[in-house]
Amino acid sequence: MSDEGHEHHDAGREKVPSRRRRRFPGISSRAYEHPADRSALVALRKLSGFDTVFKALSGLLPERSLRLLFLSDSVRVSDQQFAHLNDMLRDACHILDLEKVPPMYVNQDPQPNAMCIGLDEPIIVVTTGLVELLDEEEMRAVVGHEVGHALSGHAVYRTILLFLTNLAIRVAWIPLGNLAIMAIVTALREWFRKSELSADRAGLLVGQDLKASMRGLMKIAGGNHLHEMNVDAFLEQAEEYEASGDLRDSVLKILNVLPRTHPFSTVRAAELKKWAESRDYQRIMDGHYPRRGEDKDASVTDSFRDSAAHYATSVKSSKDPLMKLVSDIAGGAGDLGGRVRRGFGGFTGSAPSDGSSPRNGSNGSDGTTDGTDGPTDTPPRDAT
User: Fold this and answer.
1) What pLDDT is stored for residue 152 in this prediction?
2) How far is CA 352 from CA 243, 291, 336, in A?
3) Which distant-in-sequence residues (6+ apart) come within 8 Å of 348 by Cβ?
4) Which one, of 88, 95, 91, 89, lies nearest residue 23 by Cα?
5) What's the angle, vertex CA 33, arms to CA 28 and CA 37, rounded to 5?
6) In angstroms, rounded to a whole number, what is the distance separating the alpha carbons of residues 304 and 206?
7) Which one-letter DSSP state was computed for residue 68?
8) pLDDT digits (tens, 9 = 90+) for 313-366
9) Are 23 and 2 in contact (CB under 8 A)?
């Protein structure tokens, strides 16, 4: 179904893709992974026996139970059931050159959701709410997103997070035990938020339709009302969210995102658009990308250096008041003392140069949820 004529027959009827798409033979997940996600994964892959230890934990984790649950109480995607999703799944695996097609299930749930979990073998689950919400091209990006998780090996670590989150709930009555587990969970969530950005990129490589990816994220945020929404206005929300308010709003943003395994939908849309316009994306589309055969030679030091450089650049270019403060401190800003004297309002954007009072932006905190994560601890579900 991609550009190399990946087609098959179903009941004697030839299925032809709606359009041709580029394929990426042997592509390494490092090609599309967010720098923070990539540095962690490269380091983990370098640890001898790490995957073996994780798989040894499978007896303690609910993976077998989950597999049996989906097999017994969901619909497995195949040529006979949800055939259009099966076509998308095989096409996504063909484009990203994932040899073994993971099992995929449709689960009855009105909440739009999808996830990729599993230690021994990844499985993909999508809800009926998501299937009914998205059109074909939007759904193709979602399936590519999940296949990207599988190719990166995220499913293993997402299963661990699911286990730890459930464990934290069970031992909540033990103060120190709960604190220790939640510290690990919080760190994993920060990583997983970056892994979601990685998978969004994989979804774009599979769908090769930025507008469809944007539409899907808008629908996750606002439902099936595309005639009432606008991509440019949606992206402006992300910019306003980052830049508005003062230090108090920056703190609220941090508190809002801590319990989540996913970035906010507007942020994801802005990040994906930025990557789609980057040289890295164009090089991949031109056929220049790292191969998975070279993964064993990937440098941990270089990966961490890239991650650090990314964060440094993000802080320097960020319009968030707290990030600007951090940048100012690092740069030895001469007006820092004046900002401190002016109080919280002194950190809204750049310092005024005309002696006027600082501009107070609107509250930039965003307490909305995308159906995957709320203020309480929930299993790591992937609302792509």
Assistant:
1) 86
2) 16, 50, 12
3) 245, 246, 321, 358, 359, 360, 361
4) 95
5) 120
6) 27
7) H
8) 554 555 545 444 444 555 554 454 554 445 445 444 444 444 444 444 444 444
9) yes
- The answer to whether the pTM exceeds 0.70 is no
pLDDT at 306 over 70: no
> Model confidence over 153-173: pLDDT tens digits?
877 766 666 666 666 666 555
Q: How many CA atoms lie within 13 A of 337 on its CB side?
A: 1
207 φ/ψ angles, rounded to the nearest 5 degrees: -75, -35
SS3 219: helix
CA distance 191 to 40: 8
**Which pair of structure tokens corresponds to residue 343?**
């109080």
Place of tokens 């008041």: 321
Residues with catalytic roles: 146
Alpha-carbon distance of 201 to 277, in angstroms, equals: 12
Q: Give CA–CA dist 289/112, Å, rounded.
A: 33
The DSSP annotation for 289-347 comes to --BGGGGGG--HHHHHHHHHHHHHHHHHH---HHHHHHHHHHHT-TTHHHHHHH-GGGG
Residue 69 in this model has a pLDDT that exceeds 90: no
CB neighbour list of residue 257: distance below 8 Å, 6 or more residues apart? 193, 263, 264
Exposure letters 188-205 (e unless 16+ CB within 10 A, then b): bbbbbbbbbbbbbbbbbb
| Amino acid identity, position 97 | D
Q: Which amino acid is at 205?
A: L
Between vectors from CA 128 to CA 130 and to CA 132, what angle results, nearest 5°? 55
In whole angstroms, how far apart are CA 221 and each of 38, 113, 126, 240, 384?
Answer: 27, 12, 17, 16, 11
Say how far apart CA 277 and CA 300 lie, in whole Å. 27
Helix (H, G, I), strand (E, B) or coil at 8: strand
pLDDT, mean over the chain: 73
d(CA 11, CA 5): 19
Instruction: Report the alpha-carbon distance of residue 179 to residue 164 in Å, rounded.
Output: 12
Residue entry with tokens 């994932």: 98
CA atoms within 13 A on the CB side of 320: 21
- Element at 73 (helix H, strand E): helix 63-73
- Residues 241, 257: Cα–Cα separation, whole Å: 13
